[in-house]
Amino acid sequence: MLSKTAKNNILETIGQTPIVRLNQIGQDLNVNFFAKLEFFNPGGSVKDRMAVHMIDRAEEEGRLQPGGTIIEATSGNTGMGLALVGATRGYHCIFVMADKQSEEKRAALRAVGAEVVVCPTNVEPDDPRSYYSVANKLAAETPNSLYTRQYWNPHNPEAHYLTTGPEIWEQCGTELDALVISIGTGGTVSGISKYLKEQNPNIQIIGVDPVGSIYYDLFHSGKMPEAHGYFVEGIGEDFMPDTMDLTSMDDIIQVDDRESFDMAREVIKKEGILCGGSCGSAVKGALKYAARFHDEPKKKNILILLPDGSRPYLSKFLNDDWLASTGLYDETSS
Ligand SMILES: Cc1ncc(COP(=O)(O)O)c(C=O)c1O
Fold first, then answer.
1. Which CATH number is 47-147 given?
2. Hey, which bits of 142-285 come out as E strands?
3. Which of 63, 65, 73, 85 fits 131 for a cystine, CB–CB 3.0-4.6 Å?
4. Is 184 in the pocket of ligand 1 (CB under 6 A)?
5. Cβ distance 114 to 84 under 8 Å?
6. At 19, which helix (H) or strand (E)?
7. How many whole angstroms from 4 Cα to the centroid of ligand 1?
8. Does the annotation count 298 as an active-site position?
9. Helix, strand or coil for residue 51?
10. How far is the CA of 129 from the centre of ligand 1 (A)?
């Protein structure tokens, strides 16, 4: 019995994450909100799905040999997914991270045996100090290494086309009207959208982008804006990655740091859902989107994908002193 029910290793617990109805947030709006909780994945985020898929494909294609080294530029979550693969399959991992990512994320990666290299956040992607440039250099210098290049790797969106999309369709089917997703590499939104639109082209796919990132302007005006810094982690970009398909979305909604952090804190307090900062962005984006359906006769079902959990952010947006130091906290904050 035990040998039949037990998973063979931790990677087999990735996916099949639960969907939970929101019971407090947005109850004044004429929609039903549901959240898909990706922090139920063993590495704590939606990124476990694409991490294991990128390595499976590299192994199949002979691009990663036993005992090799996995290299990635990561805001932490992709690194954790890759670190779990490294731990279970015997690969060494080196992760290059921008200095704005929380110390908890770095400590967690080191705990799973990875090496972490920290680079400055506010430099151009082609600057030799940027985390993309440093990862390129490490990959060139490290024998038997694979740089997974999540921003350019087609197996990133493919993972969501093959797993997350079908899973959402199985869980929601024809009752789903819209899906709201915060966007970084675009792998999640592009892969899920491709699958769901093949099943039902009427499902609305809504991306949420932080103020300071380029996607909102590119989508709405086709013009490349000047990017600027922001605090929310894991979403937005200052360049256009290959993994982002802007046509996969019916709309992109913009939210700022304050809205994201206030909303994440409110979701945690009111729903007991221990979510991360970009989940606050997604929920706030969903509330803005849902306001359009004020006069609809039938309530729409809106699913919000929550990419990760609270634990990596205990010293960041969940810490009042840190939040106050950014100017994003006052007596009106959640
Ligand atoms: C916390 C968090 N939210 C959202 C995303 C966005 O996912 P994607 O890169 O698939 O667009 C990421 C990606 O790193 C993330 O780490």
1. 3.40.50.1100
2. 145-147, 178-182, 204-210, 251-255
3. 73
4. yes
5. no
6. strand 19-21
7. 34
8. no
9. helix
10. 22
185 lines ligand 1 (CB under 6 A): yes
Annotated active-site residue in 36, 47, 105, 300: 47
Give backbone dihedrals phi and psi of 60, rounded to 5 degrees, phi first. -60, -40
Tens of pLDDT along the chain (334 residues) come to 899 999 999 999 999 999 999 999 999 999 999 999 999 999 999 999 999 999 999 999 999 999 999 999 998 999 999 999 999 999 999 999 988 888 888 999 999 999 999 999 888 878 899 888 999 999 999 999 999 999 999 999 999 999 999 999 999 999 999 999 999 999 999 999 999 999 999 999 999 999 999 999 999 999 999 999 999 999 999 999 999 999 999 999 999 999 999 999 999 999 999 999 999 999 999 999 999 999 999 999 999 999 999 999 999 999 999 999 998 887 777 7
Where does CATH 3.40.50.1100 sit in the chain?
Answer: 2-40+156-325, 47-147
Protein residue whose Cα sits closest to atom 13 of ligand 1: 234
Query: What tokens appear for 161 in the block?
Result: 């086309």
Q: Is 69 in the pocket of ligand 1 (CB under 6 A)?
A: no
pTM flag (> 0.90): yes
CATH dotted code for 2-40+156-325: 3.40.50.1100
Instruction: Supply 122's token pair.
Output: 């506010």
